[in-house]
Specification:
By secondary structure, the protein is α+β, with helices and mostly antiparallel strands. It has ten helices and 24 strands.
């Protein structure tokens, strides 16, 4: 039997620090259409992104604020408003330019005439010295701009998307992603330390498994977004038209393919956030027969192999406090394997057997057979409005949608509604519900009216 029910409470791990970061997605239009610059990171021990193909970027440096005076076309107030931060928005723009210069050798800066600088015209040894100096710290880039009269062309960057690394990762970054067109008169030169190779690829090529690139989830998802556009200018025009850019935060969960990020549009996302907000490994992105999960202090879920004609995995729920009285909701189908799993998972004394489905003579007989396991159990369906007190858990019966004698059950303390087969899109007209517990699928937030 699979289980994620902890035997003893675990002390929560200390929250991992989140570092602010900025990334610059460099685009160009060649004969093949839209292409994006990808850099391959060097292989390094203890680096979660070792060997990955990435966009140029990195963490905000404490000295990036000093670059504000060398930025053109955008001040901190305007940058902060665009990024929806109280202040320091220009730090992200400046850091994106600085990191792109350090990692890819591309410098988004203008000369005194306002034209983008053409680094290819500089002697190679001089350019190398400039790169080396910039890698040593922000102050070197500041001195470089002052020496040549250059200004960082932050107005050539377009804010595109905002991602936060999932809880549970060794390192977490709150990253703003920007778009920019490849500057003329410059060539990509990986630094040989952080980045060791560069590629110009169509977004669809980069995500093609045949290409074999190691891609982080965020990089893959952004490339999939970019693949919807024909040209670089089309992407940038789209980004400039965005009025609100929400923060995207995947969550980590386990399943048949191992641990992976669960993205916000996936069915498992809400549930993973409920059972494992800190990314400790309790969440699941797929259900399996026999899986036991503690969803809250009052709810334990047991998954059956299938639901008869429905042909789907089906859930049963125990509601109550540990070692006290509890109710079992939707134990059917009573296969030997599922009954054994229910007996093993029961958190306390089972006093009530409840069903969200309309009861037939056959299903009533099946529920009654559970008295062989729990002799003093009640199988009588409570009337709508009736409450069952189970220690520190209170279940209230509600009229169901699967027939005249079907029921739904509200766990008042958790504001969780247990529903049957016909209520997959339950709407919360009260605005009070927190969770929907369906017979099939994942726990989810209700749809508000």
């Amino acid at each position: 039997m699979n289980t994620t029910t902890p035997e003893t409470p675990q002390k929560p791990a200390a929250p991992r620090p989140v570092r602010a970061a900025a990334t610059l997605i460099v685009l160009r239009d060649e004969g093949r259409g839209l292409e994006v610059l990808m850099l391959r990171r060097a292989e390094k021990a203890n680096d979660q992104n070792s060997g990955a193909s990435v966009f140029p970027g990195g963490v905000i440096d404490a000295h990036d604020r000093s670059l504000h005076a060398q930025c053109s076309g955008l001040d901190d107030d305007a940058a902060s408003a665009r990024l929806a931060v109280p202040e320091g928005g220009l730090d992200y723009y400046a850091a994106a330019i600085r990191e792109c210069f350090e990692e890819a050798g591309l410098l988004f800066a203008t000369d005194p005439s306002g034209a983008l600088v053409k680094l290819d015209g500089l002697p190679s040894d001089r350019l190398a010295a400039m790169r080396d100096a910039a890698v040593q710290g922000t102050d070197a880039l500041l001195a470089l701009c002052a020496e040549h009269g250059w200004r960082l062309a932050v107005d050539r960057l377009t804010y595109f998307t905002h991602w936060l690394t999932p809880p549970g990762m060794p390192r977490r970054f709150d990253t703003r992603f920007f778009l920019a067109l490849m500057p003329a008169g410059q060539s990509v030169r990986p630094d040989g330390s952080e980045t060791v190779e560069h590629m110009w690829l169509k977004p669809a090529e980069a995500v093609d498994p045949a290409r074999g690139l190691k891609l982080m989830n965020v990089t893959r998802r952004i490339l999939e977004q970019l693949a919807q556009f024909v040209s670089a200018n089309e992407v940038i025009a789209h980004a400039r038209g965005l009025r609100h850019i929400p923060r995207v935060m995947p969550r980590l969960a386990n399943g048949p393919e191992g641990r992976r990020p669960v993205n916000m549009e996936e069915p498992a996302y809400d549930e993973v956030g409920l059972v494992d907000p800190d990314g400790e490994g309790h969440g699941r992105y797929a259900h399996e027969a026999g899986l036991v999960m503690r969803l809250s202090a009052r709810i334990v879920r047991v998954t059956a192999s299938d639901d008869g004609a429905q042909g789907k995995l089906a859930h049963s729920y125990f509601v109550g406090t540990s070692n006290g009285d509890c109710a079992l909701i939707d134990p059917l189908p009573l296969t030997p394997a599922h009954l054994a799993a229910l007996v093993a998972a029961a958190p306390g004394r089972v006093r009530h057997i409840l069903s969200t489905r309309a009861l037939t003579a056959e299903s009533t007989h099946a529920l009654a057979s559970l008295r062989a396991t729990w002799p003093d159990v009640s199988i009588s369906p409570p009337a709508p409005g009736e409450k069952l007190v189970l220690g520190e858990a209170t279940l209230q019966a509600c009229a169901g949608t699967d027939g005249a004698n079907s029921r739904q059950f509200l766990l008042i303390e958790d504001l969780t509604l247990f529903i049957g087969l016909a209520s997959a899109n339950t709407v919360d007209s009260t605005g009070l519900l927190q969770w929907i517990a369906p017979r099939h699928g994942f726990m989810r937030r209700p749809i508000a009216t």
